[in-house]
């Protein structure tokens, strides 16, 4: 069965922001959510960057994700602010993982 996009933009922001707040959750999240599950193009780019950083053994946080994306040419104008806002405005990721996973299946 193909995964469906996450339930909503708000759910996507919660996943992205939750990982930024609690990066240790990335491995758990990435086991059930893939970049292609995001309907928003920026969210797909951010999640893809997180996956690449995780694979490279790099820490994931607001600063490092934006710097990584900038170094790869995938950071666009306004993305820095968006990434920071997602982290600031997001509840804990673990509270949203099950909901997002259920809706992406």
Note the total helix count. Answer: 6
What is the CATH T-level topology? DNAb Helicase, Chain A
| Total domain modules | 1
How many DSSP E strands? Answer: 0
User: Class in CATH?
Assistant: Mainly Alpha
Helical proportion, percent range = 55-70%
Largest sheet: none
Q: State the separation between the terminal residues, measured CA to CA.
A: 8 Å
Uncertain segments of ≥5 residues (pLDDT<50)?
none
CATH architecture: Orthogonal Bundle
Q: Spell the H/E element sequence.
A: HHHHHH
Shape: globular
Structural class: mainly alpha
CATH homologous superfamily title? DNAb Helicase, Chain A
Q: Strand fraction band?
A: under 5%
**Overall pLDDT score:** 86
How is the secondary structure organized here?
Layout: H1 9-21, H2 26-30, H3 41-55, H4 62-72, H5 79-88, H6 94-104
Helix pairs in contact: 1-5, 1-6, 4-5
